[in-house]
Amino acid sequence: xxxxxxxxxxxxxxxxxxxxxxxxxxxxxxxxxxxxxxxxxxxxxxxxxxxxxxxxxxxxxxxxxxxxxxxxxxxxxxxxxxxxxxxxxxxxxxxxxxxxxxxxxxxxxxxxxxxxxxxxxxxxxxxxxxxxxxxxxxxxxxxxxxxxxxxxxxxxxxxxxxxxxxxxxxxxxxxxxxxxxxxxxxxxxxxxxxxxxxxxxxxxxxxxxxxxxxxxxxxxxxxxxxxxxxxxxxxxxxxxxxxxxxxxxxxxxxxxxxxxxxxxxxxxxxxxxxxxxxxxxxxxxxxxxxxxxxxxxxxxxxxxxxxxxxxxxxxxxxxxxxxxxxxxxxxxxxxxxxxxxxxxxxxxxxxxxxxxxxx
Length: 359
Prior knowledge:
Structural class: alpha/beta
CATH topology of the largest domain: Dihydrodipicolinate Reductase, domain 2
Order of helices and strands: EHEHEEHEHEHEHEEEEHEHHHEEHEHE
Protein name: Saccharopine dehydrogenase
Number of helices: 12
Number of domains: 2
Largest sheet: 7 strands, parallel
Helix content: 25-40%
Distance between the termini: 57 Å
Shape: globular
CATH architecture of the largest domain: 2-Layer Sandwich
CATH class of the largest domain: Alpha Beta
């Protein structure tokens, strides 16, 4: 086993992890997958269903590996809240890919890497929507503009879609303000505020509200957009208005304590069997003749958000495996090659529709 190329998937038996493992098995059957987590029974059961995999017990709070397990990449598909897995990867000179961080945790992790005088393997942070693949697509299409004024990312989350338990931690941040760059200046917003109605398709009109994602930090860095906003809404406007009311009225504050954890989890986590995931990106800017241009980029994942997240994660792993990356910190949103991204998305049934210059 020591001579094999290994990839450790922490949380590899979760909803997203299983799909990442299946993609790696399909496109990289020679890679030995290590399915890690605290539930060894679940990890073993899933590993046995794969063609080239082993299960291990792995605790993110006290990371360690058996002597015969030497992965070239550690992929965190479960939250690494105290950066202990990140620290472990750096100390053991193992490449690290993380797709799970909201913005403040991302900033903390980047700062943590700076505490090391030298890195001996690449560190890739790719926590923007769908493991950074949406931003990667936006960056590709933004090259058609001579200047980008603003980018609005609108996400339609189906109540019938699959979701992992980690999504609760991401969503259960309704009382924490976050920063957004508007007209080149930083502004603070509350989650589920400043709503607007978006038409995702001809018959799909839904309310979406501001939401904290790293996209709002990453895209201004690489596209120089003056404004970047991310909003999310459920495919049920009654639920959207309900959450907006809970936060605006202060009721959510009253139920934010530990004694209400199970209640909030019931509100936030009721995964279905799978449904279509829709993302509509509105890009405003200037063309090469300085004419104002408004364009839309529509991305549809028929198998849902977890499938698209898994594809994004797989693409990031592919980039780490195939690019000669220096031993430094990377944003995964900028790593993948355009041709490979388009090829995999098309193969996996993801639909991309770009309307350049629409009014």
